[in-house]
Amino acid sequence: MAEQLICRNVTLGYEGIPVTKGLDFTVSSGDYLCILGENGSGKSTLIKALLGLIPAMEGEIVRSEEISGGVGYLPQQTVVQKDFPASVREIVRSGCIKKAGLRPFYSKAEKALADENMSRLGISELAGRCYRELSGGQQQRVLLARALCATSRILLLDEPVTGLDPRAQGDLYELIADLNRSGVTMIMVSHDVSAVRYASHILHIGSREQLFFGSRQDYLNSRLGKSFLITETGSDSEAREEGTSAAAPEEPEKSGVSAKTAAAAAAGAGVLAAGIGAAIHAYVKRGERNDR
Asked: What is the domain partition of the chain in residue ranges?
């Protein structure tokens, strides 16, 4: 499998102060990487670095040519973002902003791509609905469709099931797994133990350093993995059950998502130039500045 993203002994931080260091891992085409770690361990900082929003203090982050345009991003939703007054169609199309550049309109191909991704995620019938009127699970499907419009290679998902009820969580996990089986590389940040069973690889970040990177099964067999599962489930028997169920998924078939959060592109295009899409983009970006 082709390597898409490589972190080599990376140190990240702000104003010369390290937040996390020693990050050394590789993401290949079709992988499903789950990033674990307690609050304050540097997961949000790593997200910013993978998106190209902040540079590495030390080491290097290498992106393959196929994802050099960026990484598709599904951010954590804020209360403000959930209440955004735009149609589903408008939000999904806004994923094409970077492709549109300075054009004040979406091309026929870009509109077709948005329609295709809405169909792919089962939200075509919601196209004319107002985003703020949807359920949490439906909103996440809309934002996934938007991310797929930006890229078809690799997606970065930041706590995608937060705030969803158990059934909606399960549905979203299955949807993400289906996208991964179709060839889309997934990088998911999560606190949820359920996310582990879907992953092919685990990256566990501790206080200021990397604690583990490797396959899901190696993680489940490790002392760190067992400790994490027991802590999260509160039961050694549940941890063993999770480890057993996590080993079962079939090897996924491969095929492709990608795109950088294009703040600069949206700003350059301007609200008048890019229309409602730029406004949506700026609106979604507003929540990202608060996750440091």
From this structure: 74-153+257-292
Both tokens of residue 165? 């009820």
Helix (H) or strand (E) holding 22: strand 17-28
* Under 8 Å between Cβ of 142 and 131: yes
Please tell me the CATH code under which domain 74-153+257-292 is placed. 3.40.50.300
**pLDDT of 36-66, one tens digit each?**
988 888 998 999 999 889 999 999 999 998 7
What single-letter DSSP state applies at residue 123? -
Q: Is 79 helix (H, G, I), strand (E, B) or coil?
A: helix
Q: How far lies 58's CA from each of 66, 78, 120, 259, in Å?
A: 24, 31, 40, 24
Identify whether the C-beta of residue 258 lies closer than 8 Å to the C-beta of residue 148: no
Are 4 and 66 in contact by the 8 Å Cβ rule? The answer is yes
Token pair for 124: 């075509």
Tell me the HSE value of 82 on the side-chain side, using a 13 A CA sphere: 13
Structure tokens at 258: 């990608």
Give the three-state DSSP class for 63: strand
**pLDDT tens digits, 199-238:** 999 999 998 899 999 999 999 999 999 988 887 766 554 4
CB atoms within 10 A of CB 251: 8
Going edge to edge, which strands form the sheet with 17-28?
Answer: 17-28, 3-14, 58-63
